[in-house]
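Hi V.,

You were right to ask for the full record rather than a summary. Here it is.
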Amino acid sequence: MRRSVLCSILGFLLIAAASPEGYAQIPNSGFESWTAGNPDLWLTNNTILWVPVTQTINARSGSSAVAGTAVLYDTFVVRPLITAGTSGTGFPVSTRPAALHGWYKFVPVGADNLVISVALTKARSGVGAGAATFAAAQTAFTEFVANIHYATADVPDSCLITISITGSGTQPGSLFVMDDLAFGAATTSVEAAGSVVPRVYELSQNFPNPFNPSTLIQYAIPRSGRVRLTVFDILGREIATLVDAEQAAGTYRVRFDGSSLSSGSYFYRLQAGEYTQTRKFSMIR
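Predicted structure:
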């Protein structure tokens, strides 16, 4: 299913005809700037007949975020759609980002889904794509990571980000709030590393260290609870969330991909119950 979603995104981009606008980063990534009811540098499906995309002060940071609501017009449901670029054709890039990060809330009605997709092209030909789809309600801001999978070795020159609610139901009301989009490191799945229940909390030194481009982080938790494993740069800025979930007691391994990072020192931190431990690791190219 994931492969078909990515292929569909790449196929759409192969026939895109317009040129992207000139920005170096994700445009208006925190949805702070608005004009005439629309987020600057983004295209919405708002019309004089329906307005499913609106500005909200319910923001994770700053003074505003973007909200999308499935609204009823006449006898059919109009679901929100926003696309990066004033004409919906994306924006320039000059690197190979590993993943798209962002923060969202979602209140679905029926079988509606929240879908965030990112696709990259070079000379209008598909280079890479990623997508994140959510069906469950999230009433607090939650980070998503859409890992980007590359089909070629090319460095893309354009990026298209699309955020929408999809579904076939006839009831309006599904709602998302989106804020703080950014490119960041990719995350991978967490795997159990043994069946013996550990006696103490422990965050092991990653291996290999230094690493290029990926490394393995192992940790142990003696009792069930919320676990959060994050990566920071030397300025203390969080650049990746590797784990943020309820986990049973056990020993776990997570592979961190630092393909999008520059050489230097970074830190990873485990928070579980009252336990907090931070370790340093280094990325080299």
